[in-house]
Write a structure and sequence with these properties.
alpha/beta; 5-stranded antiparallel sheet; 27 strands; globular
């Protein structure tokens, strides 16, 4: 995959385009269509609640900030000491963007294929083996970080898992990516192998690489191990898999400034969690705004197969603030998981500002919360003034700017004949009747409309909550946190992206031999000798610093047709082996030097 191919990975059933007009009538028709889709989809699936109520999987609803990480990342593993440095890794992310809730540990691709090891062997052969993987997992979970593995369904050319005594066989009725079968030459299915290894190491689930959905046999295998697993398909999900899948990635499309809507979150009444992902984005505003607008998560991927696409300070600070709001209002308060979520509420009065309304429901945990709004400014300018216009509210209602951490002094005015009110489905009526009646504009017989004035910087975020009286303790504490956090504008942080510089480690010169050593030949000196070499990486490009940086280059490069080019004024003379090194040559070297690596697992 390349940066340009990300658009082809968009899941058409995972997102919904926003309304084409901001008028209340257009929104009423649009939201009615969404609700009809929800009703029809759940009815067709026979959906009750899937796995969303399973206590072992409820963490998936709030694992908002998640990076993909390679264990060879120098912040995660120290090759000099041979130790995993989990504390150092987490401290770095906490400092740069506020920490994480889950992580995807990925040792397989791009290393897979160098020998006959399969994807599971790459975990077994991590330094210290599976016992060390278990210790790392325990350390991460003790810090509140859930752990996922990758599943690579395309791994079919390496060794197969031998037969072993374990859980009952898994059979499949799915047509594709079913985790293999246990009757194929005695090999154990991928589904059984994954379930057993994840249980052995204490991990929480896996990401389905290249998969639109994870098929049912993987859930069957998890149940056979009495170990419920979370599945996160890379390409979003499918309707039928909602019966056993609770989360997924989102390669969302941004064809206009109107934020897309997370369809699966809407269908599951706020329980599904998407982690928005764009691995090659240098500016992360689009996906961060879409995540906050939807009350969804974000994939903070930086080490992309060894190429560093680092998060710039401006985006890092935005992730810190969005993460804090998601964890407070989505996690602790649970109001961003409202079953009555109204995306693209017509209560917004500023062009280019978009908002979701999250009414409190039976699952809201903070006392006194009535409503919450997540807002994003995509107007291309700073916004100041009345942003939300609400239908009459009673005198007990108080409003707080939960991005800036201050109470909003509301401005009340005479009620116009019609003020849009984003209503929710009506209790005590059938689903189809609710769809028809849910978005009628309410004509108020008395009272005053309320204008809520906000300041939102260009490309920024907004947050509003309505309470029944003064802010209770948890809300007051959250407001104090956000007041401190948002004191400095995001624009004050650098948004300049740079390639990560490399320094080639010098290699000492070999002592000159007066004559050709055994098995070597003399290569005479050459003048004006041109070196041309190109990288073979299948992702990334020179614009991201993919490949290596030679001492004569200003930055990493090598993927382009130009490649690495350099003319040496003079090169050589030197001696070179006449033939490639053989096993016998290497054996003689080992006998002479008595060399052995610190970790001999899968060495010879």
């Amino acid at each position: 995959r390349t940066a340009q191919s990300t658009s082809r990975m968009v899941c058409q059933t995972c997102e919904i385009a926003g309304p084409t007009s901001s008028s209340p009538g257009a929104h009423a028709a649009w939201i009615a269509k969404l609700r009809a889709d929800r009703y029809a989809t759940l009815k067709q699936l026979g959906f009750v609640r899937g796995n969303f109520e399973d206590p072992a999987l409820q963490w998936t609803q709030t694992a908002y900030i998640q990076p993909q990480t390679h264990p060879y990342d120098r912040y995660f593993y120290d090759p000099e000491s041979g130790n995993y440095t989990v504390g150092r890794y987490l401290a770095d992310l906490q400092m740069r963007y506020g920490g994480i809730d889950a992580m995807l540990i990925w040792p397989t691709y791009t290393n897979i294929g160098i020998d006959d090891r399969n994807q599971f062997d790459f975990f077994r052969t991590m330094p210290g083996g599976l016992s060390a993987v278990r210790r790392v997992t325990d350390e991460l979970k003790a810090a509140g970080v859930r752990v996922l593995w990758p599943y690579n369904p395309w791994d079919v050319g390496t060794r197969r898992e031998p037969s072993w005594t374990g859980s009952p066989d898994v059979t499949s009725t799915d047509s594709a990516h079913d985790g293999g079968s246990d009757g194929d030459g005695g090999a154990v299915s991928d589904a059984r192998t994954l379930a057993a290894l994840l249980k052995q190491t204490g991990a929480d689930g896996f990401n389905g690489d290249t998969l639109r959905s994870v098929s049912r046999p993987f859930w069957t295998a998890a149940l056979a191990e009495s170990y419920p697993l979370a599945f996160a398909p890379e390409l979003g999900g499918t309707d039928v898999a909602l019966n056993w899948t609770t989360t997924g990635w989102g390669y969302w499309s941004f064809k206009s400034r109107v934020p897309p809507v997370d369809r699966y979150k809407f269908i599951t009444r706020g329980k599904w969690l998407t982690n928005a992902c764009d691995r090659w984005a240098k500016n992360r505003t689009d996906n961060l705004q879409a995540a906050w607008f939807n009350g969804a998560g974000y994939e903070t991927w930086e080490n992309v197969w060894g190429t560093w696409n680092g998060i710039v300070p401006r985006d890092g600070e935005a992730i810190r603030r969005v993460g804090a709001m998601l964890r407070a209002l989505g996690g602790s308060a649970a109001i961003l998981r409202s079953s009555e979520w109204v995306p693209h509420t017509p209560q917004v009065s500023q062009d280019g500002v978009y908002a979701s309304l999250f009414p409190a429901d039976a699952n809201t945990k903070w006392p006194g919360l009535r409503n919450a709004w997540s807002l994003v400014n995509r107007a291309g300018r700073h916004v100041r003034g009345a942003v939300l216009v609400l239908a009459p509210v009673d005198a007990k209602s108080r409003f707080y700017d939960c991005y800036r951490g201050v109470e909003i002094l509301v401005r009340r005015r005479a009620q116009p004949s019609h003020v849009p009110r984003a209503t929710t489905e009506l209790a005590g009526t059938g689903p189809l009747a609710a769809v028809a009646a849910a978005d009628e504009r309410v004509e108020a017989a008395e009272g005053t409309a309320v204008d809520l004035e906000l300041q939102m910087e260009m490309g920024g975020f907004g947050c509003v909550v309505e309470t029944d009286g003064a802010a209770a303790i948890p809300l007051a504490q959250f407001l104090a946190l956000m007041r401190t956090m948002s004191h400095t504008p995001l624009a004050a942080f650098s948004s300049r992206w740079t390639r990560l510089q490399q320094t080639m480690v010098p290699v000492g010169r070999t002592a000159w031999a007066s004559s050709a050593p055994a098995g070597m030949v003399r290569v005479p000196a050459a003048s004006n000798w041109e070196l041309v070499v190109r990288g073979v990486e299948i992702e990334g490009g020179d614009e991201f610093g993919t490949d290596v940086q030679f001492p004569w280059e200003e930055e990493p490069m090598g993927r382009s047709t130009h490649g690495h080019r350099h003319t040496f004024d003079r090169l050589g003379p030197f001696y070179m082996d006449k033939h490639p090194v053989t096993n016998a040559n290497y054996s003689a070297y080992l006998a002479a030097t008595r060399y052995a690596p610190a970790d001999p697992v899968s060495w010879l």
